[in-house]
Specification:
By secondary structure, this protein is mostly beta strands. Helices cover about 10% and strands about 35% of the residues. The protein is built from one helix and five strands; from the N terminus they run βββββα. The strands form two sheets. The chain has a three-stranded antiparallel sheet with strand order 3-4-5, with helices on one face. It has a two-stranded antiparallel sheet with strand order 1-2. The N and C termini lie far apart (about 25 Å).
Length: about 60
Amino acid sequence: MEFVMFENVDGMEVFVNPKRVLWVREYPGQVTVISCGGDDKFGVRLSPAQTVAALGNSVR
């Protein structure tokens, strides 16, 4: 199983399984949210494109 480490908006380390990510969305205040379903949502301070690239995917 593969995990990608992010620092969330509170400065805590969050490890995300890229295969479980459902969507990545930008919100006001330069916060991008990564959703793995249900209540598994994490806010990071990267652009959506940077977040998707860190997860090992390309943006079309």
